[in-house]
Every structure is written in structure tokens, then in C-alpha cells.
Amino acid sequence: MEMLIISGLSGAGKSRVAAALEDLDFYCVDNMPAPLMLKFAELCAATRGRYERVALVSDIRSREGFDQLFAALDELSAAGFEYKILYVDATVETVVKRYKETRRRHPLDDSGGLESTIRKEMRALEPVRRRADYIIDTTGLTLGRLQRTLFHLFGNGTTQKLRVSVMSFGFKYGIPIEADLVFDVRFLPNPFYVPELREKTGADSDVRDYVFSSDVSHRFLLKLEELIEFLLPNYEEEGKLSVTVCIGCTGGHHRSVAVTEALAAYLTGMGHEVECIHRDIAKN
Q1: Rounded CA gap, 151 and 102, in Å?
Q2: Over the stretch 133-150, which tens digit does the pLDDT of each residue have?
Q3: Maximum distance among all alpha carbons in the chain?
Q4: 3-state DSSP helix/strand/coil percent for the chain, to nearest 5?
Q5: Residue 65 CB neighbours (<10 A)
Q6: How are strands ordered across the β-sheet holding 273-278?
Q7: Which CATH architecture has domain 2-154?
């Protein structure tokens, strides 16, 4: 069992780190009481591999000091459990700013001032920091960069890719609630008014040829491909793990399906992980 103990300054981003680790198949427990760490490890070990990667966030939300955390780590070692410590750090100025923005109270606040409280916690946590196997300073770190850092450390050599869903839909049935981007293609040639094409869909070659029979269709698709290809790396930089691009026409049978198929094929050819969905293609 791979066990990771996440500790560090309050407000430095431990919960955000845990959320990112869940995408790497860690089973994460936030604010795990230190005296329960050994018992939790024993329960996980008893499942015989069900919990192969475990991350425990040790928040200091009491005034009793940090001796319990150190004792719990010693108990884990004595019981034969191997673990790594990930220490999440940030500058005093950064933590002060975050607490001011969220208007939360520091768990060790003793009315001596926020900056003084943070420095007190820093001194108390110094032994944990010295024992840490990994230290991540989140000062100035975007969510995307934090995720890439964690993926580099704990991704087991795999490559993290943004997942792209391209979905066709009909405006008459409503815009998909999961949409990140919505494009209206109701200005393109409409196969609905061609009797031999009406009962077919944009997945059929003759319908697709009809939709892209005009210069406007080709120009639109080119601009759409360029726009999406520009946006995806910027979404990754901001930490998004998935993005849903929705293409809509009136009923979701012809034009939106043809454009969705073409865009999905283009993005797949560019090396993206793409899921192609036709939400309303079977609706009357």
C-alpha cells in the first residue's frame, strides 16, 4: 500500500492537493485525526489491495500542539507501514491574503494577530517539514501547475491529458447543462428540407457532404478547429481536466451531428483524448 501523509500550513492548499491526488487514484481522507492514523492504515491493509494508494491530510485544528501527529507517524513506522510525507507550504504573505479573501478564521487563532499565528504554526510544523519527502510551495502556483507538479511526482510515469467531449444537440431540447462551450450551426445548409436526407443523420456520408457543400461550412469548421486548438492548452494551464464542446442545430439530427463528427475527428488526429456524443440524434 502506498501511503502519503499530507501536512503543512493551514491555508497553504492541503485540501486542494488532496482533490488533485484523487484524480491519480488516491483514496484521500481530509482532516484525519492523528490518533486514528494507525487504525486506518490497518483497516486499509486488511482489505487486501482494495486501497492501494491512500493519502491522509493532517490538519492542525486544535490548540493541543503537534505532538500527536509526530507520535502517530512513529506508530506507523513501528507497525511496519511505509509512508511518505508531502509538506504543503506557502509564504506568510500568501497565507494571510488567502485568509483575508475567504474570511475564514485560522484554526490556531488566539487573537494575537493573523500573521503572528501563522508564524507560530510555521515554527511548530518545522519538525514535520524537516521530515518531509516532498515539499510543494503553492505561492504563486496556479491550479494547473499544481496538478502538473503532483502528476509528475505521483503519476507513475503516465501522461495526463485533457479529456475533450464534443457533443451535438438540438436547441429545441435545450442547451446541455454540462457545456463549457456552445456553438450554433443553424446557419449551415439544412438537410431537413431535402426529402431523401430528412430521415438520415449527420453521421451518414451523404448528409455530411450536403452540410459541407458550401464554402461557409468549410470556413466555419476551419475557424472552429483553430479556436478549439487554441483554447485547449489554456484550459489545461488553468487546471481543467475535461472540457465539453457543444454543437447545436434545431433538432440535433443533421448539421450539429456532422460538425461534431468532423471536429472530433480533427481533435483526435491532433492527439487529444476525445469522446464524441450525439445527445438528441434518436429523438423525434
Answers
A1: 27
A2: 999 999 988 887 888 888
A3: 79
A4: 45, 20, 40
A5: 11
A6: 181-184, 242-249, 163-170, 273-278
A7: 3-Layer(aba) Sandwich (3.40)
